[in-house]
Amino acid sequence: MEEMAIMHKPAPTDYPVHKLIRERWSPRAFAxxxxxxxxxxxxxxxxxxxxxxxxxxxxxxxVATKDEPEEFGKLLACLVEKNQSWAKHxxxxxxxxxxxxxxxxxxxxxxxLYDTGQAAACLTVQATALGLFVHxxxxxxxxxxxxxxxxxxxxxxxxxxxxxxxxxxxxxASDLRERELALTPRKPIGEFVFSGALGHGADWxx
Length: 206
Fold this sequence. Notes:
The protein has 206 residues and is an alpha+beta fold. It is 32% helix and 15% strand. The protein has helices spanning 19-23, 37-48, 69-76, 81-87, 112-129, 142-149, 174-181, and strands at residues 59-65, 92-99, 133-137, 155-164. The protein has a 4-stranded antiparallel beta sheet with strand order 1-2-4-3, with helices on both faces. The chain is globular, with a radius of gyration of 18 Å.
């Protein structure tokens, strides 16, 4: 009988960070375990308190759980085929959407995508604290999402997410399993922290 491969991949950080940041990663193998509604509410409460320009809170989430097979299928169908192959096993799928105009005056909100990303980061850290994992995806059809969910022109589908408890890496296809087991490299901070001009490294970050 094949032994279960449950991955724990704390980030090999160069400098100290909070353990929730070290423990966060994006698996593709999810356990066949539902996420309780009270836990989901905690995730969105974390997103609710993210900072945003003028406190606009431009983020919205379309959510589907395995308990709602029809809704789950609709959201799953928005993903690209490769992501569908593993995301279909996650207990929760979501799509974040950013309203790109300010409610108060209808003018463009150039910070909407940034702010929606901040909300996703807060949600993800809260998920990690609760023993959940979040895999965020660019691999979905914006056009299909717009059509399926009647998303207006002043709103932008941002990212799809699969959420759940960690599963067995052996359940994945071989190519995905290799990616699951591998460590994901990161640039050192000296490559993206600058001073004086873009591209000029800060001395203290080298």
